[in-house]
UniProtKB/TrEMBL annotation:
InterPro entries: Cro/C1-type_HTH, Lambda_DNA-bd_dom_sf. Residues 8-62 form the HTH cro/C1-type domain. It comes from Sphingobacterium athyrii. Signal peptide: none annotated. SUPFAM superfamilies: lambda repressor-like DNA-binding domains (SSF47413). SMART domains: HTH_XRE. The lineage of its organism: Bacteria, Pseudomonadati, Bacteroidota, Sphingobacteriia, Sphingobacteriales. GO terms for molecular function: DNA binding. This is Transcriptional regulator. Residues 71-98 form a coiled coil. It comes from the Bacteria.
Length: 109
């Protein structure tokens, strides 16, 4: 993933948007947006300007590569938070099952 792609992904995650959300706002296809994030496709200046406006950052901030490590940290942190949320969801489902079982046991008698 390119530095620009990582930065765009980070900005998208900070907004809580899916790739579909960002692609729709940029009026491009989801695969096209995915390729931008992955660094597979080169983007022209007008698209860079459009993306910077979408995320409310300057073109310079978008293109700056000085904080690549910070981006990696944010992406890792986001991934860790997603994993914790999934674990919590799983725990909630298990607790709901237990409540249902207890309810059924209580009212079967």
């Amino acid at each position: 993933m390119s530095t620009l792609g990582k930065r765009i992904r980070l900005l998208r995650h900070q907004k809580g948007w899916s790739q579909k959300d960002a692609a729709t706002q940029l009026d491009i296809s989801i695969p096209a947006f995915s390729k931008i994030e992955a660094g597979i496709t080169d983007i022209n200046l007008s698209r860079i300007i459009q993306i910077s406006k979408l995320f409310n950052v300057s073109v310079l901030q978008l293109l700056s590569s000085s904080d690549t490590e910070e981006i990696k940290d944010y992406v890792n942190e986001i991934d860790a938070i997603k994993q914790k949320l999934q674990q919590r969801d799983d725990e909630i489902i298990e607790l709901q099952k237990k409540v249902i079982d207890l309810y059924e046991q209580l009212y079967k008698k």
